[in-house]
Write a structure and sequence with these properties.
The structure holds 2 protein chains of 2 kinds. By secondary structure, chain A is an alpha+beta fold. Helix content of chain A is 41%, strand content 15%. In chain A, strands 1, 2, 3, 6, 9, 10, 11, 12 and 13 form a 9-stranded mixed beta sheet that branches. In chain A, strands 4-5 form a two-stranded antiparallel sheet. Chain A has a two-stranded antiparallel ribbon with strand order 7-8. In chain A, β1, α2 and β2 form a beta-alpha-beta unit. Chain B is mostly helical. A 3-stranded antiparallel beta sheet of chain B has the order 4-3-5. In chain B, strands 1-2 form a two-stranded antiparallel ribbon. In chain B, β1 and β2 form a beta hairpin. In chain B, α1 packs across α17, α2 crosses α17 and α8 packs across α15. The chains are: A alpha+beta, B mainly alpha. At the A-B interface, α3 and α16 of A face α16 of B.
Chain lengths: 414, 320
């Protein structure tokens, strides 16, 4: 009996091991170990595939050196990466996007300014300044971007035609946006909404951000913030937009592609899918103009940074430059916007007519400030926004409390 | 022992520090506890927990009707204080409230388990098959089940709302609604627990009851209800107390997995339990001190509730 049990266990363990090796990404990537090894932390997804390709190229260029890629799940990536770095895990380079400030402000990243100066073959001027700016903190550079992500609005022209409306121009206004949203909301005879006009009126559409551009104060205080929140609640009451997209009920792109939503805020990473799968007439537009003439598009970036604890800074820099090089950016699929000026120009030239309006957003980028307490500030804002949305408190009270609490978090330097 | 005591001691020590994993921990005394428990009342500060602590003390020293009166007054005073006060940490108080709210499903689940156990204890056709069927939810629990329930309660395509629509009723948004998210979680928990371990424990207890007691009751002309109420319920009371105490402990420590997978604690914090609050503080906001202080408070709460349970039920249990 005992022998059978032991055999069963051994067979089970062997099966788990074999299946684990077989599943893509299931087995740890161990290209090698030792002094001549760089460890790169990277989230799953298309970027992981790209990083693997670059690692091979690097190993060819630097004989004797290997790159070990540690893949991490995308959900809560920043928290996992922070915990790994805090635990002094062996990480030389890591992928970073919006959460860059949480790392740089904690001293987890290596400043790159000295390396930039000493590397004659590298020039900051080759990069789009907007993209490079997103990896700077306190005047120092902490990472190099390979991609820009930003927002545009996708419009389902077929639904607009059905509602008897002409498609708007690139200089459309917030009022036009709201009118289209209301008119393209579709209801059953009983009044139940089955097709949404739009999904949200974000602070950017009001020319505001959750934080002030310098990231020091809450940015939605005052009459305009209250007006924005009231408008969102009113639209949710009308059924024009959902009261809460908190539980992920709304998969932005799929909702748009299935024709459920008429106007959708889309991002550069959605472009490929949009081109492949949209079975109706659509076009892209930059964000609508607010009443005071301001026009802002949410923006972020993707890039790599070097860990402050690395002992192989020089080789890590070489890998970093390769990961963001022109060749690598040129070979990227068109779901990201390149950051090297030359490649960006080629990208812009290759855009189709219906995608060209995307470039309208490029000159109006409004990235979120890179701050250490980003996660906490964002979750605080989301909490009070939902409190008002769910009518647990008035918009004025929600904004006042959110403002007090967020300002207190931002002031706390501990 | 070392692996159990080490983290326990570390948690208590860390609860007096501010630490974000990177910087050197900074000693702040009781500040983390004050931030969690303190409420602003007008111009000053107060602790909404005082009346509750007084009520707990009354449970220990009062007898009979005074005990319940003291609990009622304590709860009402705490509630009144909280309704007028602004907590320094509203999310913590909301998570406490959510945890207590979700615990309301426990008695319903216990009654359901006992009811099922009584049914399955009868010599009916295929009762072993039914025992297996009712036990299955405990075996298949996990992320897959949560995703299944997310679909079941989907406002647009979920079977619950489609069924309601067939009767002309517009179903709520369930997990997307602050008002309906907790009841939806309670239904889900009821499904998972009613036929599980509790049912097995009750089945075992039922099979231990002396059949002579039922025969004697039959001779006295007792009906099914009287047999159940006067014999079955008292004879399984020790099991009931065990399930109640374990249920309360698990209830206080639970709710994380469902909140993480289905709702992320929302909407508007409606499904954030204490456990999820601790996770968010520690691993989303990197506030290890606050998370540790909340963990210590949770421990004290579980200890107090278990003590109250034991004191209140000790003279009502019939040990065979």
């Amino acid at each position: 009996m005992l022998t059978r049990l032991v055999i069963c266990w051994l067979v089970a363990i062997a099966l788990f091991w074999i299946v684990g090796r077989w599943i893509p990404g299931g087995a740890p990537e161990r290209a090698g170990r030792g002094e001549h090894e760089l460890v790169l932390l990277c989230p799953y997804g298309s970027i992981l595939e790209r990083a693997r390709g670059v690692a091979k190229l690097f190993e060819e260029q630097q004989p004797g050196w290997t790159v070990r890629i540690v893949p991490a799940p995308g959900r809560d990536y920043y928290m996992k990466a922070l915990t790994l770095l805090a635990a002094r895990a062996e990480v030389d380079l890591l992928w970073l996007g919006l959460g860059f400030g949480m790392f740089a402000d904690r001293g987890a990243l290596l400043p790159l300014d000295e390396m930039v100066k000493s590397d004659a073959s590298f020039s900051r001027n080759d990069f789009s300044p907007q993209a490079l700016e997103m990896y700077q903190l306190g005047g120092r550079l902490y990472g190099l971007p390979y991609a820009l992500d930003f927002q545009a609005y996708a419009i389902n022209e077929s639904l607009l035609k059905m509602a008897g409306m002409a498609p708007p121009d690139a200089d459309w206004t917030l009022e036009e946006f709201l009118a289209i949203g209301r008119k393209t909301t579709r209801r059953e005879s009983g009044g139940r909404v089955y097709g949404l006009g739009m999904t949200e009126v974000s602070p950017l559409l009001y020319g505001m951000g959750m934080l002030t551009p310098d990231g020091r104060r809450f940015g939605l205080s005052g009459e305009r913030g209250v007006d924005l929140m009231r408008l969102n609640i009113e639209l949710a009451d009308e059924g024009v937009l959902l009261r809460s997209a908190h539980t992920g009920q709304l998969d932005n792109l799929n909702e748009f592609l299935s024709g459920r939503v008429a106007i959708m805020s889309v991002y550069t990473w959605d472009l490929l899918e949009l081109q492949k799968r949209a079975g109706f007439d659509w076009r892209l537009l930059p964000p609508p103009l607010y009443r005071d003439g301001s026009q802002k598009a949410w923006a972020s970036s993707q890039g790599f940074s070097i860990s402050a604890r690395t002992e192989k800074a020089q080789m890590a820099w070489k890998l970093l430059v390769l990961l963001t090089s022109e060749e690598v950016q040129r070979a990227m699929p068109r779901d990201v916007v390149p950051t090297r000026k030359l490649v960006l120009a080629e990208y812009e030239a290759a855009l189709s007519e219906r995608e060209k309006p995307l470039l309208g957003s490029l000159s109006r980028l409004a990235p979120d400030p890179r701050i250490r307490q980003w996660e906490k500030v964002y979750s605080e804002w989301q909490y009070w926004q939902e409190q008002a949305f769910e009518k647990q408190c008035t918009p004025e009270a929600a904004l006042q409390i959110a403002g007090e609490r967020i300002n207190r978090i931002l002031e706390d330097k501990r | 022992m070392l692996f159990t005591l080490g983290p326990l001691v570390a948690t208590v020590v860390l609860s007096f520090f501010v630490w974000d994993l990177f910087s050197t921990p900074e000693f702040v005394g009781w500040a983390n506890y004050l931030d969690l428990l303190r409420v602003r009342l007008g111009e000053g500060y107060a602790f909404a927990t005082f009346p509750l602590v007084a009520a707990l003390a009354a449970v220990l020293w009062c007898r009979g009707g005074f005990r319940w009166l003291a609990i009622g007054v304590g709860m009402a005073a705490s509630g009144w204080m909280l309704s007028y006060a602004v907590p320094d940490s509203p999310k913590f108080w909301q998570s406490l409230w959510n945890t207590f709210y979700l615990l309301l499903g426990l008695p319903l689940g216990m009654f359901g388990s006992l009811f099922l156990a009584v049914l399955l204890n009868e010599k009916v056709f295929a009762n072993r098959f039914f025992r297996l069927v009712y036990f299955l939810p405990s075996v298949v629990g996990g992320v897959g089940v949560f995703l299944l329930w997310k679909w079941i309660f989907n406002p647009d395509i979920g079977p619950v709302n489609l069924l309601l629509a067939a009767f002309g009723v517009e179903g709520p948004a369930w997990f997307d609604s602050a008002a309906w998210a907790k009841p939806a979680l309670m239904v889900m928990a009821f499904w998972g627990s009613v036929g599980g371990t509790n049912m097995i424990l009750y089945l075992a207890a039922l099979q231990g009851i002396d059949p002579g007691l039922y025969e004697a009751a039959d001779l006295d002309g007792a009906g099914r209800w009287h047999r159940f109420w006067k014999i079955t319920v008292p004879m399984v009371s020790s099991t009931t107390v065990f399930i109640l105490i374990m249920g309360v402990i698990n209830g206080f420590q639970g709710g994380f997995d469902a909140a993480y997978v289905i709702t992320r604690g929302g909407p508007a914090g409606a499904t954030t339990t204490i456990n999820y609050f601790i996770y968010e503080s520690a691993f989303r906001h990197l506030e290890m001190g606050v998370a540790s202080a909340a963990s210590v408070l949770l421990f004290l709460l579980v200890l107090a509730m278990s003590w109250v349970n034991w004191r209140v039920t000790s003279n009502r249990v019939h040990y065979t």
